[in-house]
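User: Can you help me understand a structure? I only have the sequence.
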Amino acid sequence: MTALRALVVDYGGVLTAPTVAATRDWCASVGISYRQFVGPLIAERDGRPSLIHLLETGQLPVEEFERELGAAITAGCGTPVDVTGFTHTVVGGAPPDRAMLDLLDEMRGRGLRTVLLSNSWGTPYPRELLDPHLDGYVISGEVGVRKPDRKIYLLAADRAGVPPEQCAFVDDLKANVAAAAEVGMLGILHTDAASTRRALLAALG
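Assistant: Let's start by predicting it. Here is the structure, written out as tokens:
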């Protein structure tokens, strides 16, 4: 077994409170189902990449994303839905998980380098909060590629200065964890700080 030398972590839903739950609450507040929100978000139309792909790779400004998503949701459910401000309030407004920040510090104390690997929704990251806990960042909107593309995992390993086989990757989405495992990383599906810590300690032996 290859010794771990780096920890790569997602942001939303890993270093913050769960964002899916907040999104479901927002959907309920505007009178739509979660499925009515997600469908237009991930749909590819007329050969064009999905709205979420365009947003997370930095090809679509937040304001235009929200405008297009609102129009698509409205067309799908027949009820006017205003998405203005969703990205900043629901995604960007997720509070930090202090236990996970403490875990980053603990892993650094064990000699691991720590890198944030995040699919950006165009909102600013609280770097003044994150900088003391991290050795590097890979933000999809800045590098033009998003999870689960293998290239972004390899870039994260490069930022950590180690091969992928010496990285653990933590994310709250199964598809992203599976993609990390395909490039050789140890994939850990995050549900809470305690279980993620147990998985990392087990991997460290």
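Now, to help you interpret it: The longest helix spans residues 62-77. The chain has eleven helices and five strands. Let me know which part you'd like to focus on.
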